[in-house]
């Protein structure tokens, strides 16, 4: 039995998942946030709960490629500051998934996508109106780090949608392109790997999902290579606008009956 038959996928549905996997690779090495489009595509093609389990190994493959590309640019003090709060958010997200049915998870993913789109718009406007990033070493900065950590952990566990939350935090901390990519690469590799036992325990990852993952991971690699080539050439502002628009469309689609 082939993968498409196993998951009852049409040719167009598989093409959508393949494109989403390519976007995962691209987002990990070029534009963080593009994988919110991948999240919407996965949740549209597959059952909402199952989509989070299928997407997780694909994201980890992208994280590995990003770490190999930007490993010298990670800022570990920032990572250690975030991890305890993120762990609390992951536990909260796991408890939520234990209680939620597929309809509630689908609605939650849609709402999270719209929230993340709003956060991204707000982030860009704040950046345009501020010459320097706000300090994060003060008491208020530590509180902000914990708040973003908990929200990032929850959203990444429930919907693999922690990227925009962490992007907002890292940009506000003053990270430039390479430092941003290196720090986020290690962050999401560690966090996503730590989510594997939770997802497997919830039945979101099994041998059927891994068969589909084995095929989709093949599309992550060209996406990552494309991102590495484009990172210094891409018009960031235009691409963010396209990502925001696609995220809003995907979020609205998931909220509709």
UniProtKB/TrEMBL annotation:
Subcellular compartments: Cell membrane
Top-level lineage group: Bacteria
Topological category with respect to the lipid bilayer: Multi-pass membrane protein
Residues passing through the membrane, by range: 49-70, 82-98, 104-122, 148-172, 178-198, 210-226, 238-256
Keyword S-adenosyl-L-methionine tagged: no
Keywords from the named record: Cell membrane, Membrane, Transmembrane, Transmembrane helix, Transport
Keyword Membrane recorded: yes
Annotated family: Belongs to the 4-toluene sulfonate uptake permease (TSUP) (TC 2.A.102) family.
Name under which the protein is recorded: Probable membrane transporter protein
């Amino acid at each position: 039995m082939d993968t498409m038959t196993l998951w009852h996928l049409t040719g167009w549905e598989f093409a959508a998942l393949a494109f989403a996997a390519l976007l995962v690779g691209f987002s990990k090495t070029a534009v963080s946030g593009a994988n919110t489009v991948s999240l919407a595509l996965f949740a549209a093609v597959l059952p909402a709960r199952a989509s989070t389990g299928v997407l997780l190994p694909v994201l980890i493959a992208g994280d590995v490629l990003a770490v190999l590309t930007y490993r010298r640019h990670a800022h570990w003090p920032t990572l250690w500051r975030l991890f305890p709060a993120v762990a609390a958010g992951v536990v909260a997200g796991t408890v939520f998934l234990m209680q939620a049915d597929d309809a509630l998870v689908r609605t939650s993913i849609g709402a999270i996508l719209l929230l993340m789109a709003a956060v991204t718009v707000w982030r860009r406007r704040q950046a345009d109106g501020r010459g320097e990033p706000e300090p994060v070493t003060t008491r208020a900065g530590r509180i902000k780090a914990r708040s973003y950590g908990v929200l990032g952990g929850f959203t990444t566990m429930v919907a693999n949608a922690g990227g925009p939350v962490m992007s907002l935090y890292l940009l506000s901390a003053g990270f430039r392109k390479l430092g941003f990519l290196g720090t986020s690469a290690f962050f999401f590799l560690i966090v996503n790997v730590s989510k594997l036992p939770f997802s497997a325990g919830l039945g979101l990852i099994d041998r059927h999902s891994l068969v589909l993952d084995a095929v989709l991971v093949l599309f992550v690699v060209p996406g990552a290579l494309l991102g590495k080539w484009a990172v210094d050439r891409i018009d960031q502002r235009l691409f963010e606008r396209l990502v925001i628009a696609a995220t809003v469309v995907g979020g609205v689609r998931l909220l509709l009956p």
